[in-house]
Amino acid sequence: MFIGTEQLTHTYMPGTPFATEALHNISFGFRRGEFALIIGPSGSGKSTLIQHLNGLLRPTSGRVLFEGKSVGSDKHELLRLRRRIGLVFQMPEEQFFSETVFDEIAFAPRNQGLQEEEVEKRVMEALEKTGLQASELKNRHPFQLSAGQKRLVAIAAVLSLKPEVLILDEPTAALDTTCRKNLFNLLTGLNQKEGLTVVISTHHLDEAAALANRVLVLQQGKLVMSGLAADVFGKREELYELGLALPPVTEIMHGLADKGLPVKTAVYTLQEARREIRALKRRYKS
Ligand SMILES: Nc1ncnc2c1ncn2[C@@H]1O[C@H](COP(=O)(O)OP(=O)(O)OP(=O)(O)O)[C@@H](O)[C@H]1O
Ligand SMILES: [Mg+2]
Prior knowledge:
This protein has helices at 46-53, 75-84, 101-111, 116-130, 134-137, 147-159, 177-192, 205-208, 229-234, 236-241, 248-258, 270-285, and strands spanning 3-12, 20-30, 35-39, 61-66, 69-70, 85-88, 165-169, 197-201, 214-219, 222-228. The protein is α/β, with parallel strands linked by helices and 286 residues long. α3 (101-111) packs parallel to α6.
């Protein structure tokens, strides 16, 4: 296991009348290089789980594991951990605080004590990776950007630390279809070309299902399903009962299979569906 948890339980405000158990006895492990999804209805504990993975929240009981070792509470160790495991919050642009895009992305490497020359290199590289035009944007105020650009700046601000794991809490929330596609393409590239382990929580199964190797499903703080994407997405009825719909294209393939047609149901993109249906047509013609 590269990153995961063992019997992780988290209670907010323990010992008070407001105590809320947000996570209960969660155990899972992701391998290095995987693209993992955390899905579940609103309030199921996705953000709480994500914030444990880079040590921002501490378990009430149980452990968070990174490279087989328990994540402890030592301040220096946690700082080192957060350089290796980058976290992009839900609606990260709400937390921008710098005057320029450059300074926003430079904040973490500067904080790490890197020389200004190295900081500049990191900022430029991070901007380039996200596909943002450095010359056009680096001196702009972050609030003057479009929603999609702001989200990319927030991702660049984490990439500037050169993390090995990139965790994003609902990275496509409040973005339109084009921005969502663009962002998922970026994450796929970071995963496949740069070798980053990517973990995201999302409501947009449409685009995300096709990218994931591994999936966790949370409901009311409990891990109700977990495993390889093909296995989890194969359990359509169970997902449906949890209020989680499969991508429409997958539903159509299931509908065809239910009618007795020999089609693959683990189909998440229109392209794949087209291929399957063409193969089916050929089969019935001959
Ligand atoms: N800071 C907090 N203090 C107290 N309770 C909290 C806090 N943050 C979250 N909770 C509670 O913990 C539970 C899980 O919340 P969490 O934000 O992790 O869910 P989520 O799956 O990320 O939801 P969403 O999809 O709406 O973002 C909820 O019952 C929520 O009310
Ligand atoms: Mg959340």
